[in-house]
Design goal:
The strands form 3 sheets. This protein has a 6-stranded antiparallel beta sheet, with helices on both faces. A 6-stranded mixed beta sheet has the order 9-8-11-12-14-13. It is built from 13 helices and 14 strands. The two termini are 57 Å apart. By secondary structure, it is α+β, with helices and mostly antiparallel strands. Helix 1 packs antiparallel against helix 2, helix 4 packs parallel to helix 5 and helix 8 packs across helix 10. The protein has 4 domains: 161 residues, 2-Layer Sandwich (Beta-Lactamase), CATH 3.30.450; 41 residues, no CATH class; 69 residues, Signal transduction histidine kinase, dimerisation/phosphotransfer (DHp) domain (Helix Hairpins, Orthogonal Bundle); 161 residues, Histidine kinase-like ATPase, C-terminal domain (Heat Shock Protein 90, 2-Layer Sandwich), CATH 3.30.565.10. The longest helix is centred in the first third of the chain and has 53 residues. A hairpin with a 5-residue loop joins strand 1 and strand 2.
Length: 502
């Protein structure tokens, strides 16, 4: 392949290797000589420091320092001479001591600097580079006065440094060619080990594209390619299982069609229920409207009664239609919930305070307990210890609580008590609304949240209920994904819902 990974890896690796070797060659050629020169200058300064220290200590003419001087001379390839003011030789290293003494005397008394390049000058010494014309050899030399007044010169040939740099460059070239050859072989092997499994995975993917899931990757690499191969095997097995499930799903299409027919029947039943619910108020409105038109009752009080009935029935119809629209939006996902961490206790107290007049009119005694502690149901704001926070859509949860409370008020009987309990267990909070009165028949407990289902149709009609409120509760709690329900107690009925606290 023109753009195979193996070819690209070889090209990139060899390019990097050649680039690195060329950079090393450039640096070695351009800066190695300069580095050698600077290193030699540093060695001369170090040798001067030892000479001056020995002169200050009076050790410069001792045998021990003489041995040290010869060692220093051999290591650094330098020649050293020290003479006193009368030109008497005090110390030397190297075989050309007399020559160096002559050069030192010449530098002291001659002003000819035509072949000299001064590199550094201090109060104690001068560092310079000089060319000897007759043998065309360059030297790096330092000369000056020690602290004890003796004259010194330290000298090393420069040509040797250039020769060492040339040798190093030639050796680098040989090493570079060797490394390039070995590196090319190494890269070929490594790229083959990388691209080989990838080629195998490519062939497996082709087989999978042809819906052949019997092929599997056999490599046992521990790197990312090995992991990819294992995942390809998992993918192959998963696809085979999924296709099997799809075939099973195809066999279930008949059942889906049957369920669709059932949904159509439910839709017809829904329309029938709506028609039934609207039939009574419409009949009443038409009857009373005709009575008004025909002036059956001419006194003002009767006309007001007829108008009140029409307004009341129209209001019930309006409320039912609004509830049906809200329920439709909730069930078909046209209304989204807005999750927030809200104060559940404050929501409950707010509703109880606004319902106080209803309790008084119906002679109902409400009570509220939070975490097992009794709380005044009509106080405006909860105390800190009474506060319970929960996750949910506060507006829709208020609608759930309002529906429960509306049912409790209208169905409260016997002692006419309504008990609201807020209990907390681990990370869940449960709100229970209980009212005394007639229990719900056991066969109806599982159906009270169905649309238009009424346990006591006469009483529901009496207070204007449509049988939709609890269906709205179910839709809201299903959107929250939380539990809700109803159960009988000895003296009444309790509805509940749960919310997450974290």
């Amino acid at each position: 392949m023109k753009y195979s990974i193996k070819r690209q890896l070889i090209t990139v690796f060899i390019s990097i290797l050649i680039g690195a070797l060329l950079l090393l060659w450039f640096l070695n050629t351009g800066f190695l000589g300069t580095y050698y020169m600077q290193d030699r200058e540093r060695m001369l300064v170090e040798a001067y420091s030892r000479l001056n220290e020995a002169a200050n200590d009076g050790r410069i003419t001792t045998d021990d320092f003489n041995n040290e001087l010869w060692t220093l001379s051999n290591i650094y390839n330098i020649s050293i001479v020290v003479i006193d003011a009368d030109a008497n030789l005090q110390q030397s290293s190297g075989i050309d001591a007399n020559t160096i003494v002559s050069v030192l005397q010449e530098r002291l008394f001659s002003s000819d600097e035509s072949n000299i390049e001064k590199l550094e000058e201090t109060d104690a010494y001068i560092m310079e580079r000089t060319l000897v014309p007759h043998d065309e050899v360059s030297y790096l030399q330092m000369w000056g006065v020690l602290d004890n007044g003796n004259l010194f010169m330290i000298r090393t040939p420069v040509e040797g440094m250039k020769q060492n740099a040339n040798i190093a460059n030639r050796f680098l070239l040989i090493v570079a060619l060797f490394v390039l050859g070995v590196g090319a072989v190494f890269i070929l092997v490594v790229s083959g080990r990388i691209s080989g499994p990838i080629s195998s995975l490519t062939e497996i993917s082709k087989e999978m594209a042809a819906l052949n899931f019997d092929v599997h990757y056999e490599g046992n690499e521990k790197n990312e390619i090995g992991v990819l191969g294992q995942q390809m095997n998992v993918l192959s097995d998963t696809l085979e299982k999924t296709i099997s499930e799809l075939k099973t799903a195809n066999a279930e299409l008949t059942q889906d069609i049957k369920r669709k027919e059932e949904i159509d029947e439910m839709r017809k039943e829904f329309l029938s229920n709506v028609s039934h619910e609207l039939k009574t108020p419409l009949a009443l409105i038409m009857s009373y409207a005709e009575g008004l038109k025909e002036n059956i009752n001419q006194d003002e009080e009767s006309r007001d009664f007829y108008c009140d009935v029409i307004i009341d029935e129209a209001g019930k119809m309006d409320g039912m239609v609004k509830q049906l629209l809200a329920l439709n939006q909730l069930e078909f996902g046209q209304e989204q919930i807005s999750m927030e961490h809200f104060n559940l206790t404050e929501l409950i107290l707010g509703h109880l305070s606004s319902s106080k007049i209803l309790f008084e009119q119906d002679g109902i005694t409400p009570s509220l307990t939070i975490r097992g502690t009794a709380v005044d149901p009509f106080k405006t704001f909860p105390d800190k210890e009474d506060t319970v926070l929960a996750w949910g859509d506060s507006f829709k949860i208020e609608e759930v609580f309002t529906n429960y409370m509306s049912n409790a008020i209208h169905y409260a009987g016997g002692e006419k008590r309504i008990e609201i309990a807020v209990t907390v267990e681990e990370d869940k909070v449960r709100v229970t609304v209980f009212n005394t009165g007639t229990q719900i028949p056991e066969e109806s407990l599982g159906r009270v949240f169905e649309k238009f289902y009424k346990v006591d149709k006469a009483r529901t009609r009496e207070y204007g209920g449509s049988g939709v409120g609890l269906s709205i509760v179910k839709a809201i709690m299903d959107l929250h994904g939380q539990a809700f329900g109803v159960y009988n107690r000895d003296d009444g009925v309790a509805f509940f819902f749960e919310l997450a606290m974290k």
